[in-house]
Design goal:
The structure is a homodimer. Chain A is built from eleven helices and 27 strands. Chain A has helices at about 20-25, 50-55, 65-70, 120-125, 130-150, 155-160, 170-190, 215-230, 320-340, 375-390, 390-410, and strands at about 10-15, 35-40, 40-45, 65, 75-80, 85, 90-95, 100, 105, 110-115, 160-165, 200-205, 230-235, 240, 245-250, 255, 260, 265-270, 280, 285, 300, 305-310, 355-360, 360-365, 370-375, 420, 425. In chain A, helix 5 runs antiparallel to helix 6 and helix 10 (about 375-390) packs antiparallel against helix 11 (about 390-410). The first copy, chain A, starts with 9 loop residues before the first strand and ends in a 5-residue tail after the last strand. The mean pLDDT of chain A is about 95.
C-alpha cells in the first residue's frame, strides 16, 4: 500500500465529506488512482443532523456508506483510518494502518465544534457535528423529558425541561425551531403529565441578529417565526459559563437548565504536520485560488478546513456544503490540468443563496435577487435538502418520513438507543 | 405515583415487548389504569435484529417509541425505568424512580441470551437480543472487513473474515444465510481487495438438524439452501470454548475467527423477588393456564419469561412473538373477568405455523398442514414480518428498503455509528 504505481499518480483525499466526495467522483475518468481516508465508513449529511437529534428522522437516513457511493468507480479505494500526521517533505501521511504515500494530497477534513477554549462549557454543552453526537443529543432530550415526569421538585423539573441553544446561525435557528415545534405538537400528546408551559426554549446569539450571513429581512422573519413559536431570543449577549446546571450570560442573566446545545462556532479539523504559518483564524488552512496550501506544490485543502482568501473574498468562502462541493469539483479539473501540464483555472464561487427553516411551513430564503419567507421557502428548503442527500434510499426515506410526520403531527424515531450519562457526559458503553 | 386510585384498579406491566404491548392495547377500554415500565423507551421488533446487524435495514425501522403506540390511549402511562425487585407481599415493585404499587402485576420481561454459564464465551461471543447489541454486531462485522483489507498476515486476515454463527434455530439460520448473501452480492462489489473465497461462514448446531422446532422437511431444505450459499454446517457438535481467537468444538475442530455470533439459547429475564420455587428450566416463571404465577393471586407472567406448562404443553409455549401476543391479548380479557367477578377462561395457543428465511428468494414455511419452501415461502415471510412491525412508518421503511436492496443487490445501511472495541468487547463511549 505504500508505494504508488509511478505511472499513475495517486490522489489521497483525507475526509469523505461534501468536498472530498465531489472531488473523488469528478476524478472518475481521470488518469489517477483515488484513495480516500476517513475515520467513519460513511458520508454524513450534516445539514439534517438536528432532525436526527430531534428524533424526526432515522439516523441511518443521513449517513451513506462511502464504499457504496463508489461501487462503480474502479479507480477508487477507501480506507477506514484515522490520519495522525501529514509529512509533506516525504509525500506521505501517517495513519493507524501505516504510512501512505501520495502524489497529490487533499485535506478535506471539515470542521468541528469550537468552544473557544472554554473547557467547562466544552464538558457540559452538547455539540452536534456528527451522527454519534446527534444521537447523544437525542438521548439527552428524551431522557430529560422522562426524568421530568418523575422528578420531585419544581426547580429540578424546570431545569430538565429548559432547552438552551447557543448560536443563532442556521443550525441554532433550525434546532430551536424544532424544539418549539416538538413542544407544540408532541409534548402534550405523548408525555401525559408534562405541561406545554413548563417547557422553555431559549436561543442565545452574540450578534445583534440571527442568521447573520443572510439578509436583514430573513433575520427579521426568522426572529418573528421563532417568537411566534415562543422561543425566547437573546441577542447581543454571550455565554459566560455553564456548569451543567446554571448557564450564565454576560448581561447578568442566569438560566437553570440541564440541556445546553452548542451551535456557536466551528473550527477547522486540523491534522499534525500542517505548518503553523499556513493556519489562519478558525483553525483554517490558507490556500491560493486553486485550493493549493500556501507554500506547497502538491498539497491542497478544500471545504470547511480551507481558507481560500482572495481579494474578492477577504474572509474566505462560507462554511457550507455547496462551497465545499464546488471546490471539490473544481479541484478535480485542476488536478487533471496539472497532470497534463496544462494551466490551472482559478476557483470562482457561485453563491446559490441561503435557506433556513424554522419548523412546519416556515423558512427563509435568500436566492440572489429573490428573497422570500414562509411556506414556499419551506417547500424549497425540503426539496433542496432531499435532492442533495446521498443515495436514492436516503432521499426516499427522508421524504417519506417528513411526509408522514407532517400529516401525523408526530414522529416515530424518538428512540434512546444508547443512554447518555449526565454525570460523565458520555454515552454508556454497551458491552458486547 | 405510589398510591393508586382505589376505585380504578392499576395494572402494572413490566416490559414493552410483544406480550406487554398487546396486553396494554387490549386493556384500552377496560376499567383499569395501565402502567408500563421498560428500560427502553421503545418496542423492539426482535425478529429483524439480524437485518440491522447486517446493515440491511435502518436500526430505527425496527424500534417504535412506546409512548407513540399509545398516543390515543387515555388509561395508559409509561415510565422509563429499570425494575429492581418485585414485592408481592406489599403489592409493589421497586424501581430506580421509586416504589410503584399495583393491583395486578404482569411480568413481561422477555428473554435474554443464554451462555449456559460459560464466562469466557459470554465475554467474547456477540449476542443479539436488542438494538444496541445488533448495532455492535454491525460495527464488528464492518470493522473486521475493513481491517482484513489492510492486515499483513494471511492468518490474521482469515480470522477477520471467518464468521461463526452458533445455534441453528431461526436466528442462526437467518443470520448465517444473510452473511452468505453478503459475501455473494456485496463483498466483491464494495470491498475491492477482498476475495469471496476468503470469507468463510460457519453454522454450528448441537442437535442433528437445523430449525428443530420445524418439520424435518423444512430442516432439510434450510440445510440445502445454506449449503448452496456455501455455509459450512456442523451438526451434533457443541462449542467448548472461545477465547476471542480460537473457537474449539467438542469433536476436536478448531476454527480461527474474530467473529462469533451466539444464537444458541435464551433464558428468561428474571427480576429479584420472584420466588425460587416458581422458576423452572431456562429461568422461566411457572404459571397456570391463565398466566398466573404459581402461588399468587394477582401476579402474572407472559411471553418468553413465562413457562405455562399444561398437560397439552409439557414444555410450555414456544418462545416466539405470536405466543406472547396471544397471551397478552388473552390476559387482558381475564383481567377484566377478574375485576367483574366473572370466571376466567383458560389460554389456548393457536399455532399459526413457523417461517424462516435463508436469504434472497429462499425460505421455509410450516403452516398447519401446508409445508412449502422457496420463493413463495420467502414472499410470505416478508409479508408476515412487515404486517407485524409496529407503526406504519416502520412497515413502509422496511418494505421500501427491502425493495431497493432486492433490485440493487446491495444495501445502504452499513454504517459503523459507534466503534466496537475488540479488546474491551464494548462499544467506545462517545463523549458529549
Amino acid at each position: 500500500m505504500d508505494t504508488p504505481n509511478k505511472s499513475v499518480p495517486r490522489v489521497v483525499i483525507i475526509g469523505g465529506g461534501f468536498g472530498g466526495i465531489q472531488l473523488a467522483k469528478h476524478l472518475k475518468n481521470a488518469p489517477v488512482k483515488v484513495m480516500m481516508l476517513d475515520r467513519h465508513n460513511y458520508h454524513t449529511f450534516q445539514p439534517l443532523l438536528y432532525q436526527v437529534a430531534m428524533g424526526a428522522i432515522p439516523a441511518d437516513s443521513i449517513g451513506f456508506p462511502i464504499r457504496r457511493i463508489f461501487t462503480k468507480q474502479d479507480n477508487f479505494r477507501f480506507f477506514l483510518t484515522d490520519v495522525k500526521k501529514i509529512n509533506p517533505e516525504s509525500n506521505t501521511v501517517s495513519t493507524d494502518i501505516g504510512d501512505i504515500s501520495y502524489d497529490y494530497l487533499v485535506v478535506a477534513t471539515g470542521s468541528n465544534t469550537n468552544f473557544f477554549g472554554n473547557k467547562e462549557i466544552e464538558h457540559f454543552a452538547m455539540p452536534m457535528k456528527n451522527i454519534p453526537e446527534a444521537l447523544n443529543l437525542r438521548s439527552l432530550i428524551l431522557q430529560n423529558l422522562e426524568k421530568a415526569l418523575v422528578t420531585k421538585t419544581y426547580n429540578e423539573r424546570e431545569a430538565l425541561m429548559t432547552f438552551v441553544v447557543v448560536g443563532g446561525g442556521p443550525t441554532g435557528v433550525e434546532l430551536s425551531g424544532a424544539l418549539a415545534e416538538m413542544r407544540q405538537l408532541i409534548l402534550v400528546k405523548d408525555y401525559h403529565g408534562l405541561k406545554k408551559q413548563h417547557m422553555k426554549v431559549y436561543l442565545v446569539e452574540g450578534k445583534d441578529r440571527l442568521l447573520a450571513a443572510m439578509t436583514p429581512k430573513a433575520s427579521q422573519k426568522a426572529k418573528e417565526f421563532l417568537a411566534k413559536g415562543e422561543v425566547t431570543i437573546y441577542n447581543n449577549v454571550h455565554v459566560q459559563s455553564y456548569d451543567g446546571y446554571e448557564l450564565k450570560i454576560d448581561d447578568g442573566k442566569v438560566i437553570h437548565t440541564r440541556n445546553v446545545f452548542w451551535a456557536a462556532g466551528v473550527k477547522g479539523e486540523l491534522i499534525d504536520g500542517i505548518p503553523e504559518d499556513t493556519i489562519t483564524r478558525g483553525s483554517r488552512i490558507l490556500t491560493d485560488e486553486i485550493s493549493r496550501v500556501n507554500g506547497y506544490e502538491n498539497v491542497f485543502a478544500i471545504g470547511d478546513v480551507a481558507a481560500m482568501i482572495t481579494s474578492d473574498m477577504p474572509n474566505g468562502l462560507p462554511g457550507v456544503a455547496p462551497a465545499a462541493m464546488q471546490q471539490g469539483q473544481h479541484l478535480a479539473k485542476n488536478i487533471v490540468h496539472m497532470i497534463k501540464g496544462e494551466p490551472t483555472v482559478p476557483f470562482k464561487y457561485l453563491d446559490k443563496g441561503s435557506l433556513a427553516t424554522i419548523g412546519r411551513n416556515k423558512a427563509v430564503a435568500d436566492l440572489g435577487i429573490f428573497h422570500f419567507q414562509g411556506f414556499f421557502a419551506w417547500l424549497l428548503w425540503g426539496f433542496v435538502h432531499i435532492l442533495t442527500l446521498a443515495g436514492f434510499s436516503n432521499k426516499l426515506s427522508v421524504f417519506l418520513t417528513w411526509f408522514l410526520n407532517y400529516f401525523n403531527r408526530n414522529s416515530d424515531n424518538r428512540l434512546v438507543v444508547r443512554y447518555f450519562n449526565t454525570e460523565t457526559m458520555m454515552t454508556e458503553p454497551v458491552a458486547k
